[in-house]
Amino acid sequence: MASKPEKTLETFPNPFTSRDYHIHMEIPEFTCLCPKTGQPDFATLILDYIPDKKCVELKSLKLYIWSYRNEGVFHEAVTNKILDDLVAVLKPRYIRLTARFYVRGGIFTNVIVDHRKKGWQPKPVVLLQEFNSQSNIRE
Fold first, then answer.
1. 52 is catalytic
2. For residue 58, what is the domain's CATH number?
3. 32 has catalytic annotation
4. Which candidate in 20, 32, 34, 48 is catalytic?
5. The whole model's pTM is what?
6. DSSP category for residue 72
């Protein structure tokens, strides 16, 4: 049976709740529609989070992201909506979503939103590692 878009985000228990650790994901195939023109908008989503009790299950995240393919929505709105939905199910210690939209009318748009759990403080020297963009081909 083929998969289909789904708005439900599934989780699984964080296997290491006693420590802060950084989960980094790159989602290079995000699409939605421009609410003004109906033309497709393309973006790479970069998700970074420090889980608390739950982690997001990858297949459900993929189907959730796919569910925006035919929705007309502004870049700012969709980025904030995705973050809000992730915060609602994960209740993470910290989460940041960066949406890097491809050029439209000569303008690149980047929208960055984050959320910090109330009372959570990073340890004194928490540096989130930079990751180079990944490619689907080997060099």
1. no
2. 3.30.1130.10
3. no
4. 34
5. 0.86
6. B
